[in-house]
Each structure stands twice: as structure tokens, then as C-alpha cells.
Amino acid sequence: MSLKDKIKESPRLKMWLHGVLMHPVRTRPRWYLRLFQFLYVRRGKGSVIYRSVRRDIVPFRKCEIGSYTVIESFSLLNNAVGDLLIGSNSRIGMGNTVIGPVHIGDYVHIGQHVLISGLNHCYEDVNLSISEQGVEVERVSIANNVWIGANVVILPGISIGEHSVVGAGAVVTKNVPPFTVVVGNPAKIVKKWDVAQQKWVKNG
Predict the structure, then answer these.
(1) Which pTM was predicted?
(2) 151 with 164: CB under 8 angstroms?
(3) Is omega for the bond preceding 186 within 30 degrees of 0, making it cis?
(4) Known catalytic residues?
(5) What average pLDDT score do residues 85-93 get?
(6) CB distance 22 to 60 below 8 Å
């Protein structure tokens, strides 16, 4: 049996190891683990992560950032509960929060103060505090060549299709088809690309 399997099958060992790696109150990687992120964060050629970016990145999940992708100042990257995969030639805007599991494609442009989270807190048991009930995760998938405006919220489990646009301030609660424009709270389709007419047309 491999060490990884032994850890999975032993709750006590798993809890101990988690405590070694993650601060129990701050819920972020311990300082000595963060010193070695250059060893386990995979970065492509020409990628940029500004110094003010908070990197809650752990080695037991994937974190991959493609070539020539930029993570702007004061953003947060977190892969503690799910892999974080960001393609090439993409830009994560200032003050973004990206909590895995999240998969972002190539040539994706994301505005300022956007929340993309594959994590939800469990709350169903009214006899326990919400903080005691753990979390659920569902991967967020953003395809290639997508533009996401400022102050957007993208909920767990959402897929956003190729060459789509999410207008500023939208709350995305349903999957966004390819070649569409969505706006509002909850986000609704307002334009689609019409192949026959070769132009964008209003929806409905």
C-alpha cells in the first residue's frame, strides 16, 4: 500500500498531516510550506504573478498556470480543496478570488473583483454550526476565449462556454452556452451568435 493510500485510509493520520501543512485558524498553508511553492506550482514561460497575490497553494492539489498568463495584484489563488488549472495567455484581474476546483482555459480575460469558487459550505444540520459541517466542491469550468466583466460571481459547478461574455456584476447560477452574452442577477442570455446571419443577435 502506498503512503498516499495509507493517509487516505487513516483519519487520524490525515488530520495530523493536514495540521502540519495548514494553519487551523488561519486556514492557509503554513509559512514554511509557502517557502517551497516554487517547487510545486507549475508555471509556464512568461507567466506573471504579482507580489501582492495571496497564494494559498498546497502541494497535495494541482496548481498550473500557463504561459504568458498574468495574475494581477491583490488577487487570491486557493487550491486547498480542489485543483487550480489556468491556461495560457489569460489574465486574472485585480482583486479576484479563485478557489478551486477551477479550470480556466486559454485567452480568458477576467475583470476586477471577480469571485470564482468551486466551494460551498454545508449548512443542512441545524444542530451544528455551519463551520462544523464541512464543505462541498464542484468544479467550475471556463472555456477558451471568454471575457468576464468586473464584480461577477460564478458559483460552484458552473460551466462557461467558448467565446462567451459575462457582463459586469452578473451572478452566474446556471451554465453559460458557447457564443452567448449573459448579464444580470441571476445571469440571463441577452445575445447569441447567429451562424446563419454571421452576427450577434438579441435573445428573445
Answers:
(1) 0.88
(2) no
(3) yes
(4) 121
(5) 97
(6) no
